Amino acid sequence: MTIRTRLALWLGGILLLSLAVLSGVLHYEWVEQQHLLRQQNTEPESAWSETGEIVIGYGLPTMLFLLLGSWLLLGKSLAPISALTAAAERIDISNLKERLPLAGRGDELDRLTVVFNNMVTRLDESFTQIREFTLNASHELKTPLTVIRAETETALRDSATPPAQREIFANQLDQVAHLTKIVDSLTLLSKADTGQLTLALESVRLDELVRASFADAQLLAWPGGITVELKACDEATVRGDPHRLKQLLLNLTDNAIKYNQPHGRVEIEFVRGSRSVVLRITNTGPGIAPEQLPRVFDRFYRGDPAHGTSVEGSGLGLAIAQWIVKAHGGEIQIASIMNRETIVTVTLPLLEEGLVVAPARL
Fold this sequence. Notes:
5-stranded mixed sheet; alpha+beta
C-alpha cells in the first residue's frame, strides 16, 4: 500500500469519526430543543429528520470534498518522492555516475536527495578504487607468474633433476597454471568494468560454434564417463565476437561436465526463434540450492557442492559468461532441481537482415 493511499484512508477514517461525533452532537441539541418545545406545549419536530438533513446535506458533501482535495494534495506533495524512487531504482553498479535531480525547493526532499547523491558518489569512488586495484594487481602478478612458470619448466627439462623434484615441479606448474587462469579472468572482468574491452563484432554462425563446442565437450567428458548429447542445433547468425562466444560456450559446457555426477549426462540444445536464439545446457549434477541461485553469478562464489568436491575452479567462470552474454545484448538464467538437473539458458538476439556490422566498444 502506498503512502498516499494510507494517508487518505487515515484521513477518511478521521472524517467519518468527526461526522459521527457531529451527528451525535446535533442529535443531542435537537433532543434538548424538542424537550423545551414540549414544555411550552408546542408540537415537537423529528430530531432524527433534522439531524439527517444536516448530515446528508452538508456533512457528506463536505467530507467528500475534503477527501478529494486531500487526495489531490497528497498526490502533488508525494510526486517528488515517486520521482526520486524511480531515479534511485535506475542506479546500480553499472551507472553510479547518475545522480538524482534536485527539486530546488530547499525542503527535506532536497536534503535527502543531496545525502543520497553524496552516498552514491562515495560508492562510485570506492568501486573505482577496487576496479583499479584489481586491474593493477592482476597486471603486476602476470610477470612473476611468467617467470615462475619458465623456471619450473626449465627445471623439468633438466635431465639432472631427481624424479622426486620433478614431481614437485610438476605440481607447482599445475598450480601456477591455475593461478594464471585466475589472474587472466580477473584482468578480463576488471577491464570490462572499466570499459577497456572492445568486442570485435561481426556476423557469426553461432550454430557452427555450438557444434564445435559439442565436439570439444565430448573430449572433456570422456574421462569421467559423461555422455554429451546435442539434441538440436538450428542454423542461426548473430552479431558478436567469435572469440568471446567461444569462451562463453567453453565456460558453460566445462561447468556442466565438471559439476556432474559420474556417468551423468549433458544435453545441449540450440534453437532459433523469430527474433532470438536460445541455448540450453542441461546437466545431471548435484544441483544448486534455491538460496544459492541468486549468487551463482557473483565473483568467486562457489556453492556448497563445489566446496565439498575436488573440482577445481575459481568462481569466475559464470561471472565471465554473464558479462559476455550481456555484452552481446542477451540474457542468461540458471534453474536447478537438487540432485536432479541444472539448466543454463542463454538468449541472444538474431542478426537483423541488412544490418551493417562494425566493431563496437563496451
